[in-house]
Amino acid sequence: MRSPSFVIGIAGGTGAGKTTVARTVADHVGEAITRIPVDNYYEDLSHLELTEREQVNYDHPDAFEWDLLREHLETLLEGQPIEMPQYDFEIHNRTDDRVTVESSDVIVLEGIFALYDDAILEMLDLCLYVMTDADVRILRRIERDVVERGRDLEGVMEQYLETVKPMHERFVEPTTKNADVIIPEGANQVAVELLIEKIEAERSSDSGAGATAETAVERERQDELTFSDSTN
Ligand SMILES: Nc1ncnc2c1ncn2[C@@H]1O[C@H](COP(=O)(O)OP(=O)(O)O)[C@@H](O)[C@H]1O
Ligand SMILES: Nc1ccn([C@@H]2O[C@H](COP(=O)(O)O)[C@@H](O)[C@H]2O)c(=O)n1
C-alpha cells in the first residue's frame, strides 16, 4: 500500500463550511482522498446517561480522544487502513460501528480542532482555516442541528451561548495562527478550485519524483550491467 503524498487539515468554527469544502474537494479528486472527520473522535461516553451526555461541553478540546486520532493518522501515513469510529449527534455518542478506512494519496482531516494539536500539526502538509462570520455560522447551525441532528431551536440557542461561542473564541479561532491559508465563507468556488489544483499538482509532483527515483535506480542498474558486461 502506497503512503499518502499530501495531508491537509481543514479547521474553522461550527457551520463555517469545513465539511462542505472537504466533500466538494473529495468529489472532484475521487478515490485518491481519505476524509477524516475529527467529530468521529469525540470520546466514547457510553458510561453516561443520555441526559448527562446532553450537558457535556463538546466544544472543549478535552471532549476528544486525541491519542486515538493521532494513532489513526500515523497508521494512515504508513499506508495502512484504520477502523474509524462513527459518531451519532442525536445520541451524543459513538455508535457501535467501526468503518474500515483505507489510506490513500491524499488525507483530509476536517473539524473544529483540526489545527489544534501540535503532534497532528506536524503531520499536516497544508493547513486551511475556513473563516465565516459568526452570524452566518449560527444561522447555518440552527438549520442543520434541527434538520439533521435532531435538536430543538431552544436547545441549539442555549448550547451556542453557553459553550459553542465562548469555546470558539478561546480555543478554535486562535488556531487561525496555524493556518497556511484562510478560506473565506466556506465552500467558495475560487478557493475550492485552487485547492483542487494544489492537490493535483502535489500528486503529480509526487508521482514525478517517484518516476525520477525509479529512473535513477534503473540507470544505476544499467551502469552495473554495462560494467559487468565489459569485465566479462
Ligand atoms: N459557501 C456556502 N454557502 C452557503 N451555504 C454553505 C456554504 N458552505 C456551507 N454551507 C452550508 O452551511 C451548512 C454548514 O456547512 P458545513 O460544511 O456542514 O459546516 P461545518 O462542517 O464547518 O460545520 C450546511 O448546510 C452547508 O450546506
Ligand atoms: N454530541 C455533540 C457533539 C458535537 N456537537 C457540536 O458539533 C460541533 C462540531 O461540528 P461541526 O460540524 O459543526 O464543525 C461543535 O460545535 C459541537 O458543539 C454537538 O452539538 N453535539
UniProtKB/TrEMBL annotation:
Pathway assigned in UniProt: Pyrimidine metabolism; UMP biosynthesis via salvage pathway; UMP from uridine: step 1/1; Pyrimidine metabolism; CTP biosynthesis via salvage pathway; CTP from cytidine: step 1/3
Protein keywords: ATP-binding, Cytoplasm, Kinase, Nucleotide-binding, Transferase
Major localisation: cytoplasm
Localization: Cytoplasm
Segments forming domain Phosphoribulokinase/uridine kinase: 7-188
A GO CC term attached to the entry: cytoplasm
SUPFAM superfamilies (alphabetical): P-loop containing nucleoside triphosphate hydrolases
Record InterPro entries: P-loop_NTPase, PRK/URK, Uridine_kinase-like
Protein known as: Uridine kinase
